[in-house]
Give the backbone structure.
Amino acid sequence: MRAALGALLSHWRRHPLQALTLIVGLALATGLWTGVQAINAQARTSYDWAAAQLGQDSLERIVHPGRDLALADFAAFRRAGWPVTPVLEGRVRGTRVIGIDPFTAPPGEGVPDLSGADDLTAFLTGELAFGGAGAALPIAVRRLDGVAPGTAVADIAAVQRLLGTARIDRLLLLPGVEGDPASVVPGTAREAPPAEGDLDRLTDSFHLNLTAFGLLAFAVGLFIVNAAIGLAFEQRRPLFRTLRAIGLSARALTALLAGELLILTLVAGLIGCALGYLVAAALLPGVAATLGGLYGAPVDGGLTLAPAWWLTGLGMAVAGAALAGGQSLWQLARLPVLAPAMPRAWARARAATLRRQGAGGVALLAAAALLGAFGQGLGAGFALLGALLLGAALLLPPLLVAALDGLSRLVRGPVAEWMVADARQQVPGLSLALMALLLALAANVGVGTMVGSFRETFTGWLDQRLAAQLYVTGADEAQAREIAAFVGDRADVLPIVSVQTDVAGAPGELFGQPDHPIFRDEWPLLDAVAAPWDRLHAGEGALLNEQTARRMDLWAGDAVDLGGTAWEVLGVYSDYGNPRGQAILGLGAFDAAYPEADRRRLALVTGDAALRDDLEARFGLPPDRLVDQAGIKRFSLDVFEQTFAVTRALNVLTLGVAGFALWASLTTLGTMRLPQVAPVWALGLTRRAIALSDLARATLLAALTAALAVPVGLALAWVLLAVVNVAAFGWRLPMLVYPGQWLELALWALLAAALAALVPAWRLWRMAPARLVGVFAGER
Amino acid sequence: MRWLVLWLLFPATAQAQGFAGLGQGGEGFALPAPDPTFAFPEDHGPHPDYRIEWWYLTAVLDGADGRTYGIQWTLFRSALTPEGPQVWMGHSGITTPDAHFTGETLARGGIGQAGVTAAPFAAWIDDFAMTSTATDGDAYDALAVAARAGAASYALDLAATGPLVFHGDDGFSVKSESGQASYYYSQPFYEVAGTLSLPAGDVAVTGQGWLDREWSSQPLEGDQEGWDWFSLHLDDGHRLMAFRLRGGSPFLYATWIAPDGTVEALYDGIEIEPLETAGVEGRDVPVRFRLAIPAKGVDLEVAAVNPDSWQATLFPYWEGPVVAEGSHRARGYLEMTGYE
Amino acid sequence: MLRVRDLTKAFDTADGPLPVLRGVSLDLAPGETLALTGESGSGKSTLLYLVAGLDAPSSGTIEIGGRALSEMDDAARARLRRAEVGLVFQQFNLIPSLDVAANLAFHARLKGGTPDVAPMAERLGLAEHLSRYPEQLSGGQQQRVAVGRTLIARPRLILADEPTGNLDEATGDAVLDLLREAAEGTGAALMMVTHSERLAGRLSRRLHLRGGVLA
């Protein structure tokens, strides 16, 4: 047994490249997967912390639609026996600061331990805050584990001073109190806690992308592993036969090989985990910045390593290797003792294999089409993704062969014909690597298209939404009226009014919209009755956001229930990033229905650049009360750049993995290909010409693969945008195509292929003639 | 004297520095001085220059159901530094023979959630309130008091049948051999009537109450561990306050109060010894004492109405009604701190 | 046609240079058929490869049609092989990725011709196999394709290295007949390495190599 194991393992010593391929492939697959998982896990832990902080995810709130709440209101509720605690959030120099009252905050998450000597004093006097990484305030910030990066917790009075305000955002109400808060403080109302997991749902989109990328990278890696294992088994067939002939049972041999595979897998898995850690550590700051900026979701930029993380990584590696090696082991277990020792000729099974692959690919694509047409929900969306990608991968070899057949009829001259014919013959040997390349390229095209579409749509939508130049909130309605009077005709003053109410039966938000060209002209409607704006302002109906329209299947002309009143749907508008229902009434109709709504917010449409400063000087508005459009847009764009940085990094990594697969395959094939090139050389082609043709051939195959990857990637993008996104988030993004991106990507693919082929080609060029001659004379 | 003070003050060093850190220095704070002159109603209100201060009411009550009850209403004020901030803590307790309810709440000063005003007198934190209902005379002559304690609550009216009494030397109360002291006076003559709202239903109660007022800045020796404190209403109309400070330099004191309010401060001849302990919250706490002042003909065996009168607050302690037999029949309140 | 003078060849090994040819001189005239025999390791295959320009000698000269191989670079030698030399080996003669028809035509097309392979295929009994791939042929069929390719290309020098080594006697004889015919029919010179005395006897001349020199 030991001798047999030694004999088996000696193969790897003689073929270190194969061992390297296997280990690196598996390590890359595991690494990218675990890296992405680590990022996701880290982010989710951070959200949970943020959402659970002070129980904000579960506690009812008390709000005042008509004016700011102050600490005096808090005291009034407390003295009436209401268990409330105040919260004020804001941003100070880029740090998100949360003001709490340490005496009444529910114990647990987010309430720092103030038992250290003088800590309470320092906290209450506003000299001490507690923060995550990177949190910086004009006061001392002590690092506290579990607090999100860029976030600090301080005493509420300290935060009021920092923000230059006397208000609080809301009162959180501990459970168990009945009654109407207006009986304590007139005008106040209860508000349900934010719908469950808003943040999760918002950021799901981002994590979905990361997970999809992780999975693709893993799949790409498995192709490499599969190829390496298959080759190692193939090459050792004579050895297997010998071992079997001297009395080793098929079961024992299979067990030995499985054990060998397990050892290699564990080594690779450990390397992969370490790699994943590096990937995650390198990408996490970008991810954290993206999520923080995009959704206000705090994510700790530092990575924590849990033992479970390593175990999961190793588990994935073992599962992957089992998947990749299972077929080979299965075949081996059934190998007759006297199976031919010669490597199976590729081409002998070529036609049948191609037919099988083609049939499988077509079947999968048909399944994908059916899922696309009739599938419902996220599960179907992912099944569709899987069927699409696997189907495309399986179709790649037959399509490549067909393309090369077509090409062979076009080319002239024996060398060119030979080159094409040889490329055709190489397809089966390279098919796994090329499939990996296809998946990597398709993923790049798909995700690039999705991200690009998202960016363009979102920023365009932001332009519509932020059509006004300034957004002002008065301390109360009186100040809002003063501001409006002060502005006079220096700007169009548009009130922003809204109430929390049920929209089509689910908690949502209802807005009143004034009649102004920025709405009529700038807001595209996805679906509308005739003259929707005129009818809106005539009070004849409402506009509905896309999420609600899709969820409830309510479109122009249907009736929708808004807070107990039925309205006709006049149109449907895009509302990205908002998981809740939303609707818009004309301002007149809104005012009539909701006279009590908060009337402190104003949008100012103006070209007057000095207005902002004048308002600030006149009313002393704190920064969060006077927001300019440019700032928001700049911020949003920064956020997208961050997203791109992460996506690009993952793109490059995936492509790198595919390039490695190609290199490994070409290098392995390089040694096996001598019988292919030796006759050509003997007949009068120089080694240089043959090497160059090898380079050209690899590039040609990559080019054909890239050409196929574009439609597959677009299909992928379509599935992500039109199926997965709609199922997951309720809105559909228009798909925008970026041919420039494809071209760039194709060039990268060609470069990757050329680089992958370079070393084998160079070797061929420099190969001693004696080795080539040996083909004709030597034993094989 | 009620020595419990805010866990907030020096919680990290509490164990090394005496109970709840009371042994630490009071630098920068005003310090009690001998021969005080009290001015009312001002001194019923807060003294923010001093580190700690409390309004501390206990009452032992007879229920219409024939059972004995006790209630506690306490508001602590603590200045974290001489310049502030002021922090308030309210404790409430309701003891029945077989149950004990605890309420606790904390608040910052300055926003109206908690505070004390001298005229008209009102002390409050959240919905714990003690308000003067006196129309003339001293503001403490008549009080309305209400608080929640867990699942129970109470609302009581108090009427004083005697004057304010001043402990120690005319209200300058020395706490150790080395001279730590506080200002300390009481109103021990309350007749109480009102209602306890217990989970099982309302109970009408009447009884006797005792209000302590005390403020200081540095009251306890560093090596003192805790105290056993008694306030008793004797059946002959006398009132007795007695305590012993346990630890390195034990210190005993008693105030003997005649039915007319005449006060005698006793620094020796006081015997306080535990007779029986009970396991409460994982520690042994005395629940029966011998309390004797031979010079006054007092020799009592004092027993807890409910041995489980445990105030499971941030800084836990024992506080509950007691009944006494022996030279007199008596009842009142016992507070014990520092038992580990 | 072929002129070899004082040819030596040594291979670099771990134990120093290993001389394989120690000074070989020979001439071959058009139409002449030469059998090169010798023990395993006598250097007969090496001599053939040097003559084909597949490898470079350590010293000595080779002239084909009056042109010295030693004066040529890799590319020129490749051109010479294309134009003047036909090679038939014991195995792996054919280009696996091309079918029989393309293999037959390949050499001639490399020379720039546009050959019609049908008559030759007919003659070699390969007409039905034109669209097959080498691996689908038997060893004898493969060698016939290799010979046919050489015949179609009409080289002036045919070099064959154990062309029948993998074949049974009858098939081997048929292949040899084809090679002889090619030489005799086109006036090409044939040099064939073989260890078979019987086959050697069927050629017009024979030389025996022993220890790197002609015996």
Q: What stands out?
A: The radius of gyration of chain A is 32 Å. Confidence is low (pLDDT under 50) at residues 339-348 of chain A. The longest helix of chain A spans residues 414-465.
